[in-house]
Amino acid sequence: MSSKQGATTKPSRTSNETKKDQEKQRDVRNSNITAAKSLSDCIRTSLGPRGMDKMIVEPKGEVIISNDGATILQKLQVTHPCAKMLVEVSRAQDVEAGDGTTSVVVLAGALLKAVQDLLERGI
Predict the structure, then answer these.
(1) What is the model's pLDDT at position 8?
(2) CA–CA dist 32, 37 (Å, integer)
(3) Among 1, 9, 14, 87, which one has the highest count of C-beta atoms within 10 angstroms of its own C-beta?
(4) Ranges assigned E (strand) in the chain
């Protein structure tokens, strides 16, 4: 009995399916980058000595005014998985170092912006 008998071959994918998969991957990647950059942009303006305060109105009507990145991120109702990851990174930074929660989110946003520029170039 030869080793080729009984072997199954995978059906080849059409180029149309491959293009659809590539488009979907690109769309998901862009969605993740956009969500993370949006969160980063929201927090970035509270950074530094001239940072602006943010007013957050909770569902119960309670108003919180803060320029602390950890507080802002904790109170936001983030639904996008990638943005949730940034909130978790910020929380981990707070636990480990006790500071730099805003900086870590802003840095991640800047890195993702650079990644998006490279992806648009095809790199």
Answers:
(1) 59
(2) 9
(3) 87
(4) 54-57, 63-66
